[in-house]
Design goal:
The chain is of the alpha+beta class. The protein has two domains: 226 residues, Aminopeptidase, CATH 3.40.630; 70 residues. It has nine helices and 13 strands. The strands form four sheets. It has a five-stranded mixed sheet, sandwiched between helices. Strands 4-5-13 form a three-stranded antiparallel sheet. Strands 8-12-9 form a three-stranded antiparallel sheet, covered by helices on one side. Strand 4 and strand 5 form a beta hairpin. Helix 1 packs antiparallel against helix 3. The longest helix is centred in the middle third of the chain and has 20 residues. The radius of gyration is 22 Å and the shape is elongated. The termini are close together. The C terminus is likely disordered.
């Protein structure tokens, strides 16, 4: 977590902002200066000492299910942990985000350090953590339960080492990052939150070896294909919406690949029955931008199973 705290300190104390993926010399100099101050050095040592506590919280939080649109229980516990870690005030907003405030010396600006509470895994998934050697395995443990623990650790470290900032700092667990959540928690904070947010540092995913300073766009579409339906034999030869949506997926992928602007997913074919009207088939979710789509609380393709999403290195 050394890099995480140094990155946080650079933004929180120096209020540095970067729009490029290369570090300008003056920012590198600020990092070196901040990292060598006695308070920051003490904070780094405290982070190391808190590692066993962090691993216990990682297991605890991960074993509280937080499927899409079902983050309430985890949010409540995360809020309790924010209080225990030393936040000056803690609240859960109308959208379900859990927020802890650490007041700054001046408080003219607000900087947020956050991770997301929800996972991609549907309700009913076994989220029990399994330890094999020095590695913890469980659905959602790397995305993004580990990020939540980093947020808590930075808060506790700053409170216990009296690492003060000029700006107010929010420590946040957001809802609705995955799937059809469509970043609803983050959008609420920026559109309707109790205070304007001037800078945001997000801890997400397993790759914490660097800092990304440019935004990732995410665009979602919902397409519905409808047809008369009918028995597969008696209505043979009629228009079949399942065939139309299959062609739509192929066309979407061909167009998306030609632009090479990012990643794309097309997920979930569902059949809906209407009495006396046969069957209506629909596809929910044709999207671009690296987020899987699907119906709330239901499994969808390309969710889970990848070792880098499911494992967190334990020391």
């Amino acid at each position: 977590m050394h890099r995480i705290l140094v990155a946080a300190v650079v933004v929180l104390v120096a209020a540095s902002e970067s729009t490029a993926q290369t570090v300008e010399p003056r920012y590198a100099s600020e990092i070196e200066t901040l990292a060598s101050t006695p308070t920051v050095e003490a904070a780094m040592q405290r982070i190391e000492a808190l590692d066993p506590w962090g691993m216990e919280r990682l297991v605890e939080l991960n074993e509280i299910p937080a499927p899409p649109f079902g983050e309430e229980a985890r949010a409540e516990r995360f809020a309790e942990l924010l209080r225990e870690a030393g936040a000056d005030s803690v609240w859960i907003d109308a959208e379900g985000n859990a927020v802890g405030l650490l007041r700054g010396r001046i408080g003219d600006r607000t900087v947020a350090l956050g991770g997301h509470l929800d996972t991609v895994f549907p309700e009913g998934t076994d989220v029990t953590v399994r330890e094999v050697g020095d590695t913890l395995f469980a659905p959602g443990i790397g995305d993004d339960t580990r990020g939540l623990v980093v947020v808590l650790t930075v808060l506790r470290t700053m409170a216990e080492t009296d690492l003060q900032t000029d700006d107010d700092v929010w420590f946040v667990g957001t809802v609705g990052e995955e799937g059809l959540g469509d970043l609803r928690g983050m959008k609420y904070l920026f559109r309707e939150g109790v205070a304007p947010i001037d800078s945001w540092i997000e801890i997400d995913g397993g790759g914490i070896g660097g800092v990304t300073s440019m935004a990732l766009g995410s665009v979602r579409y919902r397409a519905t294909f409808e047809g008369p339906g009918g028995h597969s034999w008696g209505a043979f030869g009629g228009a079949n919406p399942a065939h139309a949506l299959a062609r739509g997926i192929r066309h979407f992928q061909d167009v998306a690949d030609a632009h090479a602007l990012g990643s794309a997913n097309q997920l979930q074919r569902r059949g809906h029955r209407r009495r006396h009207l046969g069957e209506r088939h629909s596809i929910r979710g044709m999207g671009r931008g690296g987020h899987a789509l699907g119906e709330p609380g239901e499994p969808a393709a390309n969710r889970g199973g990848a070792p880098d999403r499911d494992a967190s290195r334990a020391r």
